[in-house]
Design brief:
The chain has 4 helices and 9 strands; from the N terminus they run H-H-E-E-E-E-E-E-E-E-H-E-H.
Length: 194
């Protein structure tokens, strides 16, 4: 029996290690060719945002009335409270996470975690001067959210934000536009009471 590993196994081990390192580094990256907002101020960004559009994923599939509420954590990070409702079942859903700056407090790049030690990229790619609308991307173009301070946006503003995301190379033809209208009111009142 040889003291040295079989060349194919050694190659596979090296490839697996390289792939793992690449995937872990890419999880908190930013889509190629995009830039995070800079300068950025956290204080006016905190508070409640309403989801206007998203690229759908299993963790939000079927949810309407979606909000994201950001508050400051004692450790300097940001508490992230995402809420939504499966209107067909009448079931609210909530996910609580934490986010931390990755490139300094004046650059809108974060790593966010909802599942223990695993972090994903959260990048503010466009933000209105008055901090009322935002385009957020993940580490690649498979993740996109358009949020606003109010549950309803004019069609003109919505189209403008979608066009911006399209110009950044996101597949906006796959966007989901969650319900934010009257069906959400009972859940919003309950949410406000908590």
């Amino acid at each position: 029996m040889s003291r040295y590993p079989h060349p194919a196994r050694a190659l596979l081990a090296c490839l697996a290690a390289a792939l793992t390192a690449t995937l872990l580094a890419g999880c908190v990256g930013i889509p190629k060719g995009t830039e995070a907002v800079q300068p950025f101020e956290l204080k006016p960004y905190l508070g409640r945002w309403y989801e206007i559009a998203r690229l759908d994923h299993w963790f939000e599939n079927g949810l309407d009335c979606v909000t994201a509420t950001y508050t400051k954590r004692d450790d300097g990070g940001v508490r992230v409270a995402n809420r939504g409702v499966d209107l067909k079942k009448g079931e609210p859903s909530e996910a609580i996470g934490k986010a931390y700056f990755t490139h300094g407090a004046d650059t809108a790049r974060f790593k966010v975690s909802f599942f223990g030690p695993f972090y994903a990229g959260y990048n503010v790619l466009a933000l209105s001067d008055d901090y009322t609308t935002v385009i957020i991307g993940g580490s690649d173009r498979g993740y996109l959210w358009i949020l606003a301070r109010e549950p309803d946006l004019s069609q003109t503003r919505q189209r403008r934000l979608v066009a911006q995301a399209t110009d950044m190379g996101f597949p906006t033809n796959k966007l989901v536009f969650p319900e934010q209208g009257p069906a959400c009111r009972p859940y919003r009142q309950a949410d406000t009471a908590n």
